[in-house]
């Protein structure tokens, strides 16, 4: 008469080597068990003459009805009805109320039927279905009692009481067992899902080391498909390499050279990511970065961010040179940089089983050419880049160059500095001579650091004065 616990799935296979079984009791089996228990109660009542003998037809109904309702809910148009399981259980509750009336409100058998119905409602549909089932059962019980009347005695014989309690107990225990097994399996599935999620996160973070963070994020959030496709976009392209690296590689051991290069790439990458650049690749001692894809703040802002990154890289190299000197590296390593802005083809290039997210086009060639023409510590930009940043960054005209792929000579400019940092109000100072190097950015210095720096400068000044005397 009652339904079984909510069926989730027969099995969850989260890992092909570790299937997680979820064995809830099917609706059909649960209903057969409930109606069999109710039939046992009614049969005992008939045997002990608790109810009239003409109610033998109920036993046949209890045997046939589970199969009928299974057919209706699975084989007919009713299977498309929303919440069909709850509706069928509500019908069972209505039948339970009618049965209570037929029993004449005999106490223990009636209570056994009520407990069985209410337990099923709570398991399957929660409080809402329990309330609805209670209303239906009460209504049909009142109608049935009003039509047939009550029994002569509300007390039942001992055998009827024992069978009623046992039948309801068996149904509740079996249903609770399957509910417990289902909850246990779901907890195992949840644990396995959590473990696989943690493994996937760890793996994705490892894979992210081979991709620019912007590209990795766009792939893992579903914003970008991993397939061979490209598009035309206006980008700002940056190239840099280290002047003097070839000579240094001949002087240093490979292990020390590798450590130095990795340190350099790590520091420059932090600067690039700070300004939102997409790191394309490292080739030897060269770095290629572009701005404007996968995300863009507009051509003007992208160009300004690219040049701002280059300026900070140039300043940061002064700090790194001081550190390298303290490690015994005397070769004065400096970077040279080139930047161009224009339309390029960006996207996934390669084969279906091996792709590279990069850019191609004449603007890429121009940026590479500007980098090769730049002097140590110099940043050269194309006219397109200059036109986008000239209101914020001071540049110097460097004439024109001829570049393959361009029909006319290309005007180029040298980046001097931010306009806001020019003049007496600039926030930084830098001096570098043999035996002396200083880089000062007052905007980044705390009060505590300011005191220590002043003491160090005064001590250095006193020592220089003493040696002069």
Automatic annotation (TrEMBL):
Keywords: Membrane, Transmembrane, Transmembrane helix
Stretches that traverse the bilayer: 32-50, 56-73, 94-117, 129-151, 158-179
Gene3D superfamilies in UniProt: Nucleotide cyclase (3.30.70.1230)
Stretches assigned to the Guanylate cyclase domain: 236-371
GO molecular function: adenylate cyclase activity
Matching Pfam families: Guanylate_cyc (PF00211), MASE2 (PF05230)
PROSITE patterns assigned to the protein according to its UniProt record, in alphabetical order: GUANYLATE_CYCLASE_2 (PS50125)
One record GO biological process: cAMP biosynthetic process
Identification of the protein by name: Adenylate cyclase, class 3
Species annotation: Marinobacter zhejiangensis
